[in-house]
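My current task is to audit a protein record that another person submitted. My question to you is simply how this chain folds and whether the tokens agree. This is what I was given:
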Amino acid sequence: MSGRTAIILVTFNGWELTRNCLNDLTAQLGDSEHFVVAVADNASTDGTPERIRHDFPSVHLYASPENVGFGAANNLALEGLLRDGESFDAVCLLNNDTRLTHDTIPQLREAWIQAHELAQGEGGKFAVVAPAVKNPDGSEQPNYFAGLGPEGIGSIAFFRNAFRNEASAAKVLQGVPRQTAQGDLAEVHWTSAVCWLFGKDLYDSLCKENAGKLFDENIFMYYEDADLALHARRLGTRFFIASSVPLTHLGGGSAQSNTRRALQHDRAQQYVFKKHFGFHGYLLSKSFRFCRSLARVAASLPRSLGPGGKQTRAYIKHHFTLMRAALW
């Protein structure tokens, strides 16, 4: 196999998840000269950095003194590898709460080579390839989207999602992948960054667009992959799912409350929409979020008076908080 892939993980506590993921990588990559693994640690307090140094001495560890967020941590690791003189022609961003089969990464790299050729043959410039993500029980965990905002499904269709339940809204956003001439590659508008593999040439081009950084460090968490995908598409990037390359995503979660996570998610959406679509995007985000929570409150009110009413009232309070945030 020619070329070299840099595999990047971000950690914030969760040592067991990280250990299992690194064990999976070690089992399939060994001492291969074609891969280099780097971990950016966001000030873990559970001993993760020390354990990585002890158990995985070949892994490049870049420890931040504070939690700088997902995007900034990826930047830290990639910049660290380059500063340390590590060369690579491809980058694999990989969540630490994933489990891999014995040849996930080598197969994904081969799929990326095919996707790159396919993209260029159809007028594209770059390619990002993602695996077929599975839940722990083996069911599909859709990690692809038909689009987000005006460049994807369109403003009106996106706004209508405010009045759908979560499952129906997700189906609209996900859309249907387009099958390609390469049977195991399906094209989508973009994919979530549970696992991305792309070329160093795209990395360099994206950094030029973002003041030398891959990710926008103003985004602490959520929507950083949407932001990056929007930049990438404007550079001529095509996104593909490699259906023959499975990966299990466990979903590590967060220590924050659901409301705090939701507020962070909504603020990130507003920032990204305004950044890419101007005042139109800003208004779209605010109106969508307000109407979404209003619809959820209205649908929940009858249940708040019956059995299980306490839980429903907590859900209503949650969405009232999100509605207030959307107004300001």
